[in-house]
Amino acid sequence: MADDPFENMLAQMDRAEEYADVDHGVFERLKSPERTLKVTLPVELESGEVEVFEGYRCQFDSSRGPFKGGVRFHPSVTQREVEALAGWMTWKTALVDLPYGGAKGGVICEPKDLTERDLERLTRRYTEGIRRMIGPEIDVPAPDMNTNPQTMAWMMDTYSMYEGYSVPQVVTGKPLEIGGTPGRVEATGRGVSLVTERLFEYLDRDLSDASIAIQGFGNVGSNAARLLDEAGANVVATSDVTGAAYDPDGLDVAALGAHVDAGGLIEEYVAGEYRGSASGSTWDDPDQITNAELLTLDVDVLIPAAVEGVITADNVDDLRASAVVEAANGPTTVAADKALTERDIQVVPDILANAGGVIVSYLEWVQNAQEFSWPLETVNAELERRIGSAFDKTVEQYDTKELPDLRTAAYTLALERTAKAHEYRGLFP
Ligand code: NAD
């Protein structure tokens, strides 16, 4: 069960239903998506070969507003995974109170084996495939794993070509030059850092010098590391697919960031093969440990910021962190989650911890609709206000209803808000 993300999501909902004030009929409806489109995508590759890809767009629930959710390019994409991720987007947008529903898209492919031209053709063909179900007021895609601002630019251009005029607000996460917003790239990492700070305030603990291990040093992990380092915390370990760098006295986060930005790998950094300005680092060389070892380090906070299903029944008893902030989507299996609750380890759930990305996507969409752009300070202030308020409401729900954990509190709030929208709108016809 734990390996199926959809079952994982249903189990999280079931756990919250007990405490949520939600009509059972509405709850049953919320266990399945509104619709999922499967598209077959023949693409002529640069090699001259025609390869047929398969893609999906799932629209989970639109009771609170237009659908919103990323597009993922990955070999392990499945319909079930896309549907689970669309469900999580529904709970996330409801929890942080954005006027959106939840959606997700995916294409089964290995981006590493495709050229830039292949990726452009695949993106355009996929956009054509789903174009009848997206639109600024209908469904607004964004980047996810292996997609980026360039992917969004191709999607926006393809959609706009069919419409006959530029429609920037059909996607978010665009480059600045075509309607993107300042602050979007680092938004998720900034949100992770902000909720970690709030968690420490709530627990009445001092973040300065708190030790932090971050699995994954990509977009989310590296920005969270930089901002937490700036906030005074001590980032002692981080990783990529090649393994983890660990120094109990703290890592030189700026040098590591410069190395990775220049295309470097963690194992090279540990071996002293610095790229970019990292060569100027005067810090001690860290030790190389495995990703599995990183997860069980004796730290104040563990931040999984890489892939799904890394905290499982097999390793949960070895975890020594006193808090977990879930930057990745679905990093904890249901069985492991129960064990963390029993061990009194506070977990800030993914739908809250990584909501900074969708919050700033919403701010991009609002600016596009207004045909007006905001400065970075305004975007960051609005992000902080919204994610801070969602954190406070989750904690209030947890305390006043005496719920077992913060995840149940977050789901209870999200389910109640979505069910309320269904109740007001009524049942068509
Ligand atoms: P990314 O591709 O930029 O970075 C992923 C990092 O994880 C890289 O350092 C990579 O080497 C590492 N990694 C990949 N597979 C690994 C493995 N098996 N073991 C250890 N490390 C591994 O991705 P990202 O945008 O930083 O996203 C990370 C997570 O955050 C994902 O779960 C994603 O769904 C979630 N998330 C991202 C955003 C966003 O705005 N980017 C928003 C919400 C949630």
What does this structure look like?
It is a single chain. The protein is of the alpha/beta class and 429 residues long. It has 2 domains: 33-167, 3-Layer(aba) Sandwich (Rossmann fold), CATH 3.40.50; 187-353, NAD(P)-binding Rossmann-like Domain (Rossmann fold, 3-Layer(aba) Sandwich), CATH 3.40.50. The protein has helices at 5-17, 24-29, 79-95, 116-130, 149-163, 187-202, 219-230, 253-261, 266-270, 291-295, 334-342, 350-353, 356-370, 376-400, 406-425, and strands at 35-44, 50-61, 67-74, 101-108, 139-143, 211-215, 234-240, 243-246, 287-289, 301-304, 323-325, 346-348. The strands form 2 sheets. It has a 7-stranded mixed sheet with strand order 9-8-7-6-10-11-12, sandwiched between helices. Strands 1-2-4-3-5 form a 5-stranded mixed sheet. α3 (79-95) crosses α15 (406-425), α6 (187-202) packs across α13 (356-370) and α14 crosses α15 (406-425). The relative contact order is 0.14. The chain binds nicotinamide-adenine-dinucleotide. Nicotinamide-adenine-dinucleotide is lined by residues 144-145, 188, 215-221, 239-241, 291, 305-307, 327-329, 354, 357.
Helix- and strand-based class? alpha/beta
Determine the strand fraction and express it as a percent band: 15-25%
Give the assembly state of these chains: single chain
Number of strands: 12
CATH class of the largest domain: Alpha Beta
Q: What is the overall shape?
A: globular
CATH homology group of the largest domain: NAD(P)-binding Rossmann-like Domain
> Could you say what the CATH architecture of the largest domain is?
3-Layer(aba) Sandwich
Helix share of residues? 40-55%
CATH topology call of the largest domain: Rossmann fold
Radius of gyration: 21 Å
